Amino acid sequence: MGGFEYDITKYNAQEFTRMAYFCSEKGVCGVEEVPEGQLQVMREILNHRGAEGWELVQLFFGEEGVVAFWKRPL
Fold this sequence. Notes:
The protein is of the alpha+beta class. It has one domain. 22% of the residues lie in helices and 43% in strands. It has one helix and five strands, in the order E-E-E-H-E-E. It has a three-stranded antiparallel β-sheet, covered by helices on one side. It is globular and about 45 Å long.
Protein backbone atom coordinates (compact mmCIF):
# COMPACT_ATOMS: atom_id res chain seq x y z
CA MET A 1 0.00 0.00 0.00
CA GLY A 2 2.95 2.35 0.55
CA GLY A 3 2.69 5.84 1.93
CA PHE A 4 4.92 8.02 4.04
CA GLU A 5 5.37 9.05 7.62
CA TYR A 6 6.36 12.62 8.40
CA ASP A 7 8.37 14.34 11.11
CA ILE A 8 8.99 18.00 11.97
CA THR A 9 12.08 19.06 13.89
CA LYS A 10 13.30 22.41 15.20
CA TYR A 11 16.93 23.45 15.59
CA ASN A 12 18.03 26.31 17.85
CA ALA A 13 19.01 29.65 16.31
CA GLN A 14 22.39 29.64 18.15
CA GLU A 15 23.54 26.89 15.78
CA PHE A 16 22.67 29.04 12.77
CA THR A 17 23.48 32.60 13.77
CA ARG A 18 24.78 33.56 10.32
CA MET A 19 22.87 31.15 8.08
CA ALA A 20 20.12 33.20 6.48
CA TYR A 21 18.19 32.55 3.31
CA PHE A 22 17.02 35.77 1.74
CA CYS A 23 15.45 37.14 -1.43
CA SER A 24 16.29 40.53 -2.91
CA GLU A 25 13.74 43.01 -4.20
CA LYS A 26 14.50 41.69 -7.70
CA GLY A 27 13.56 38.15 -6.62
CA VAL A 28 17.10 36.74 -6.52
CA CYS A 29 17.34 34.30 -3.58
CA GLY A 30 20.41 32.83 -1.90
CA VAL A 31 22.51 32.17 1.16
CA GLU A 32 25.05 34.86 2.00
CA GLU A 33 28.20 34.77 4.12
CA VAL A 34 27.58 31.39 5.73
CA PRO A 35 30.59 30.23 7.78
CA GLU A 36 31.84 26.70 7.10
CA GLY A 37 31.12 25.68 10.71
CA GLN A 38 27.44 26.38 10.25
CA LEU A 39 27.36 24.54 6.94
CA GLN A 40 28.92 21.59 8.79
CA VAL A 41 26.15 21.68 11.42
CA MET A 42 23.51 21.51 8.67
CA ARG A 43 25.46 18.78 6.85
CA GLU A 44 25.56 16.69 10.05
CA ILE A 45 21.81 17.11 10.59
CA LEU A 46 21.06 16.08 7.01
CA ASN A 47 23.40 13.09 7.09
CA HIS A 48 22.14 11.89 10.48
CA ARG A 49 18.48 12.04 9.48
CA GLY A 50 19.24 10.62 6.03
CA ALA A 51 20.94 7.60 7.62
CA GLU A 52 17.68 7.00 9.51
CA GLY A 53 15.79 6.93 6.20
CA TRP A 54 14.37 10.47 6.39
CA GLU A 55 14.27 12.70 3.31
CA LEU A 56 14.25 16.47 3.77
CA VAL A 57 11.08 18.01 2.34
CA GLN A 58 11.43 21.67 3.38
CA LEU A 59 13.42 24.03 5.61
CA PHE A 60 12.11 27.25 7.14
CA PHE A 61 14.48 29.79 8.68
CA GLY A 62 13.19 32.13 11.38
CA GLU A 63 14.46 34.28 14.23
CA GLU A 64 14.29 31.42 16.71
CA GLY A 65 15.89 28.78 14.52
CA VAL A 66 15.31 26.36 11.69
CA VAL A 67 12.30 24.10 11.25
CA ALA A 68 12.76 21.02 9.06
CA PHE A 69 10.04 18.87 7.52
CA TRP A 70 11.00 15.24 6.80
CA LYS A 71 9.36 12.19 5.22
CA ARG A 72 10.22 8.52 4.82
CA PRO A 73 8.41 5.52 3.39
CA LEU A 74 6.27 3.45 5.74
